[in-house]
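dumping the sequnces here before i forget
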Amino acid sequence: MKTGVEAIDELPPLTVGRVLRSSTTGFVVGCQVMLPQMPTFGSFVKVHIQKDVEAYGLIYNVSIEDDPLVRQLLSSPDISEEIIRDQRENRQMPIEVSVLVVGFRAGDRVYHYLPPQPPPALDEIHLCGEQEIIAFTEELDYLRTILAASGDIPADELLAASLRQASLCRGVGKPERDFLIRAGRELARLLNDDPLRLDGLLRRIRI
Amino acid sequence: MTLTLSKLGSQLDGMGRELAGREEKYQQLLAIAWQLLQEHSDHYEVLQKRAHTARARKWQGAIPADEPLLKTHPLPPHPPQAALIAADGSQVEPDRHGVALYALVNIGSIVFEHGTGKRPQVESEPHLFYKDEDLYEDKRLLQGNLLDIRRDTAELQKLADLARAAESGPLLTLTDGTLLLWVLEEAPAARKQARLQRYLACLDSLRSSRAAVAAFTSRPRHAEVINLLHLASLGDDPTPEEIEKNPLEGLMDRALFRFLSPGERSTFFVSSVAINAEYRRHRADDEIGFFYLNVGDERHAEIARIELPYWVATTRSSYQPGPPWAGDYRLIDFIQAAIYEQCRVSRGYPYILARAHELALVSVEEQRDLEMRVIAAMARHGLDARPSEKARLKELTGGGKRRYRI
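..and the predicted 3d for all of it:
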């Protein structure tokens, strides 16, 4: 299944971090960021794989790694407000961002299945712009990839978060509602043997 | 991997045995030193005179202040609010095999307003040296000690700038290590003066900001009080040979001062190292002195050395809000309270210094990025930049050796 990418966003892409380890189904990004800039759950991201091929993914986990200085401070009987603010607002926290791959783009075509190769280590991960998200979610076959995700991935929460984001990119009101109705229909088709799960998902994306 | 650890077995065992034997010897010496300390504690006036005489003969030791040597000062209360400023620097040495000759000093600093709940101000400020007049001093390349002095002066300059901007109230400025530019002792006189004057000008500026200026040495290896005890054990007019032959050699002051309780400090001593005479020449009370402070806790004594100019040790300042800091206080008491409090949260090393150090550090990756930027900048101006063949080969074999201050 294919969709044309009609527009490239005007703003330069926001960098999330660099690939720490990867496979064709997902990858982990390591970065040091200030807390306010921490990437958010359910965001669409992209990473370069080879010339003119980019993998698309969804952030399904953000974890703050152990930091020796923070560990030491924890053993202190009382920590002052100034130190807490210094740690939270001035220091770059080492974080790991886990991404589930949901498709890729080759040239101007979008594919809702796994890319041929994983992204190479140290490659930069960028947040997708609105137009890219709209183009990628024109078709909804990627929902199947999320529903089938196993392991630690909170699939239903991730699916709902991605749909909410994709609907917001289309504009408040009718465009947003139309998209969610279309997504609801697709979910009903995919989950016709699991009405309980379907009900939970529909409740999560209701406006 | 070229270090064959299995071949080191017997050497490591020998090292363990040697260290154990040395420890036993030090315990015996410590008992002697402790005996001397108790005997001579009250004779500080006699020792002052003797130390001043010996100083003229290049004796390097501690000159006691007007207090018994064993006098201790309990932990004073911390002011409810105080500005604490720390600066630390790291450097990248010039690399003859790199794409171009340059040096870098990176100064990390933090302004920590204790008791205000404010977010501390942090900063990293890099200085790149690439012009010939910056890279060479007396035709000597800016590396090693020369770069150390450049870094130390930049640290103090940063503190002076930040202190000028600080609001009134108790103000501490802290650096890691020493305030004594002892590395200048071997420099030619003219150069020594120029560098020293720059450093002393920063100290002057801090003085006019009424800052409590201090430097913190963790696990100090100094033996100046030990040397004073040896001097005390000699007669009134010891010969240079007698002074030279110190049976307590190898013992360190910090072993002697382990008797201090947590938060307690020793009395103040002036250092008699030769370079300190230059500080005194600048202004009589610019000489650098020190005390020892136990920054550990009940379970583990951690003795740190705190250096401060003589005028800081003798200055009283005033601070209005609330008891027990209403009225005036001694800067030296404030230093003791503030450093102990800073060490309490981050176990034996001041939090603000740990942060300043973190802000100054240039990682291996950043060093590589810098090199790439240098190559790009050179290319923009039509220069073909490439490292030496030796550097290129080292990179290939993973043996690229560069020095960073940690």
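Chain A has one domain: 15-205.
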